[in-house]
Amino acid sequence: MSQVSLPxxxxxxxxxxxxxxxxxxxxxxxxxxxxxxxxxxxxxxxYFRVNxxxxxxxxxxxxxxxxxxxxxxxxQMIGESIPDLVRTAKELCNYNIAGVDLNMGCPAPxxxxxxxxxxxxxxxEKVDRILGELRSAVNDRPLTVKMRVGFENTDNFYxxxxxxxxxxxxxxxxxxxxxxxxxxxxxxxxxxxxxxxRVHCPVLANGNIDSATTAIEVLSQTGAAGVMVGRWAIGNxxxxxxxxxxxxxxxxxxxxxxxxxxxxxxxxxxxTATTMxxxxxxxxxxMFLNYIALSxxxxxxxxxxxRQTQTEGEMFNLCDRFLLADLTKTLALAPSLSx
Length: 339
Prior knowledge:
- The chain is 41% helix and 13% strand.
- By secondary structure, it is an alpha/beta fold.
- It has two domains: 16-247, TIM Barrel; 257-323.
- The chain has an eight-stranded parallel beta barrel with strand order 1-2-3-4-5-6-7-8, surrounded by four helices.
- Strand 2, helix 2 and strand 3 (73-78) form a beta-alpha-beta unit.
């Protein structure tokens, strides 16, 4: 089976950019918000859970069927039942998707203990069978994989890469940590570089791409076809534009903190917010503010006080205090990871 062409990027002269799939984050609304501030080349949905009783999640499906960002959307699946993965992949191909993506990297213990997500990396033989069947089922759309460099170690890393080649995977998004690393420790960009040399498809480097400067360094170090950004795009939705500016050797446009305050308002306007109790709405926004705060206040006061808020009023008053008090202040180009 030969490879399938990927959708055209926004800027064919530049490396690819993609927003990483993040459960409970990269829904339709967040994709629209990101697109407002500067789209990546590719979007990926939250994962569709696949098992013998699963059906396509309507909320996740909306990120495909109601998406007006103008950018390609890959549909991600997570599961280990081959017949059900094949069934779901075929169902997804009835929609306007850019391709089907298999999650082989989710590091959440409740996920990998079910032998799905990152748990698949423990069984190269199972991965071989899954990808073989999916490649046969998805023969007119790109079939892509998101994975990590290993489960607890990297002993079967090269074996998995050879399986990727065997089944003509069209795009590999590679997070340079193991599943057990979660989001801690150094990212093994050297292994991403090894993957770039070994596999026959484009590779997106993933893991701690927290700024345009880091993106340029990682692209140089790995030779990857592009970068996939996750958590740090939550904190800085302007990051994809900033990466493109850096790639063109242009000065990076500073973002006034008042614009960050507007971004928070955009997040708050998610259609589901009206159906949530206040406590849930506050918790929802804190999920985003945990990353935004790291580029607002290097001393960590905003982050600490934000986590203590309990009501909408307290939270928005605090945002106003830190984001609107000095209209000359701008968002840091990289988050402070020491707070």
